[in-house]
Amino acid sequence: MPEFAELLKGYRRFREDTYPRQRERFEETIALGQHPKLMIIGCSDSRVDPAQIFDVDPGEIFVVRNVAALVPPFEKSPGQHGVSAAVEFAVQMLEVKQILVMGHGRCGGCKAALRQDFAGTDPGDGGFLADWITLLDEAREPVARKHGTEGRKAELAMEFAAIRQSLTNLRSFPWVADKERDGSLKLRGAHFSIKEGVLYSLDEDTGEFLPED
Questions:
Q1: Could you tell me the pTM of the whole model?
Q2: What pLDDT shows up at residue 129?
Q3: CB of 120 within 8 A of CB of 209?
């Protein structure tokens, strides 16, 4: 199929150009293991690859991606807690110094949460997605009241609210809260505008997202 053939073309470019330049770095990570200082929780959207946006070398960032860059609250209920496992590994085993929750513009998951597009659907028809984005139900209410559920202004407010909600949920993990309190871990929020190619960082003192130079 042509999609995989295109991937192989990229792989060959990587082998011819990038890998030789980065070989020493790859070998270092094999010998010493990975020791990233920063975790990024990002969206699965194909347009917002953290490694590309931040132009980092292999081993520099520990990344978990999912629909809308969401973090569920801490809980011990039975189940497969993928994001929680990644947070646990990054904070407790890798001992990262910072966690960045990075949302983005034109996020389909946030838009679906705002409009409740898949509510009541079965798995395979949007049901899994609908269940996942219920994580934003509480954050959605004030956005919908103030901005409605249609239009770019409402969507942007929902994207910002999702980042704030994920930061709140991160702080419900006891070991995250403990490390933030003692200063060994810093939590950050950011929003990448696909249209502008600009990163906006959350100022938690003012609640505003401000552009980075």
A1: 0.95
A2: 98
A3: no
